[in-house]
């Protein structure tokens, strides 16, 4: 029998593919399963349903989960990274660190990667809202950090920009897209190769319309998190209803989704 997660994932793939078709700003998008707080069995189910990119927010969780799951998983670290946890977060199959937000952090991550002879893809986390609890560099400071990584951090590969922002905040999406264009022009980078990580369960389709190439989706794939993360309790209730609805819809759409699914992997 097909798992609930497989059904939800199919529906997400379907929506991602339609959003890509309707977007003039991107022609591809990776789905990253944001699996924080979720047990191994559920990650394995998502893996069995075809998901290969997973994102964790907490170093302790990625350290516990990564060795116990298939090694072809491409892990993204999407949480705030403290410098004393860098060594641990560098699990063998860490694919991308999405949250570089200072020269100090870039320097230290580069140094640890050097020791392991590892080249690591990194995104710069940009603060696109005025809410001061969110980490990230300002849009003004981002180009200097890109330049630092490109010139001073040989073991880091600057791969794009990431933002969290407020749910559905078009302004955040627009700011990040414009910043990507600015950076690509300034540093002569190919804009088709530079990632924009934005969009979550509630707003990923919109984010893709605005150019996202990397959506981080938690509750819509894995179901509501059982214990509230920080101040997200209110959102969780919406997500529960959403997920149930999604499951019902995805049952109907199953056959058409199967074909579509291949494109976004
Ligand atoms: C939890 C989390 C997500 C996923 O959030 P959902 O609303 O559950 O899809 C995405 N990005 C980051 C940084 C997160 O912490």
From TrEMBL:
Residues 238-265 are annotated as: Disordered. The modification N6-(pyridoxal phosphate)lysine is found at residue 36. Keywords: Pyridoxal phosphate. GO terms for molecular function: pyridoxal phosphate binding. InterPro entries: Ala_racemase_N, PLP-binding_barrel, PyrdxlP_homeostasis. Residues 40-225 form the Alanine racemase N-terminal domain. Its cofactor is pyridoxal 5'-phosphate. Belongs to the pyridoxal phosphate-binding protein YggS/PROSC family. Pyridoxal 5'-phosphate (PLP)-binding protein, which may be involved in intracellular homeostatic regulation of pyridoxal 5'-phosphate (PLP), the active form of vitamin B6. This is Pyridoxal phosphate homeostasis protein.
